[in-house]
Amino acid sequence: FWMLPFLRMAWHGGAGNNLRYFLPLLPWLALLCAYGLRELSRLGARPFSVALWALVGLGALVVGVLIWDQQGIALAASLQQRLPQWLMLALAFMGAATALVGRTRAAALASVTAGLTVTALILAGVLGNLFDLSQSQRVRTYYQAREAHFAPLPAPSLVLSANPPAFLFQLRRENAFQARLPRDADRLTDADLALVETALGAGYRVFVADASRAARIAATLGAHESVVAIPASLFADPLVEVRPAPEPARP
Could you give the CA distance from residue 139 to residue 141 in angstroms, rounded to a whole number? Predict the structure, then answer.
C-alpha cells in the first residue's frame, strides 16, 4: 500500500523489497513485529518449537544458497532482494493463517510463524553486516579514490557522465557542475550538445567521462577537438576534454 501511490510516477524497487524505500515505515513495522511476537506467544508458541522451526528455516536458507550458487545466479542480488521478498510473503501468509484458524490449531502455526520470524531476523543481521555494511564501505573507499584521482580538475568546469554519483564531489566545488549523459552509449541528445556549447561559451571547461561520446560531441559542434585531460586509473576511465580546436598555423 505504501508503494501504490508511486507506481505510475517512478521506479519503486521492482520486485525487490529494498529497505531504503521502506524507511518511513520501519518504526511502525517494528511495533507491529513486537505486537505479533507477543500474540504468537499467547497463542501457544513454545520456545523449543520456535527454535526447531528457526533451525529448519536456516537449513532451508543454506540449501537455497547452495542451489543458487550452483545455478550461477547472482548470489548477492538474490540474498538482498529476492530472498527477503519470498520470506516476507511467507511470513504474511503464515501470520494470516495463524490469525484465521481455530484456537486449537493456532498453537502449531504460531510456532512455525515465530520460527520463520527468528530466521528473518537472523538473515537481516547477516545481510546487514556481511553484505550491506561491507559493500557500503567498499563504495565509499572507491569514490574517495576517484575524488583524489580527479583532484586536478580545474574550475570553472562541467563534467558529463552516465554515472553521476561518481562525480558528486563536483557539487562541493565552486563553479563546478556535472550533468548526466544517457546510459545508452550510442545516444546523445540536442540538450547535451546545447549544454556543452553554452558551457564553453560561458568560459567553462567541459570534460566527458566517455572518450567516444566526447569525440562525437566535438565532431558535431565543429571546430572542436577532444583530448585526454586525466588518464585512466584503477578507479576510473579517462576523462576527456572537449575544447575549441586551435586555429591552424598560418604560413
Answer: 5
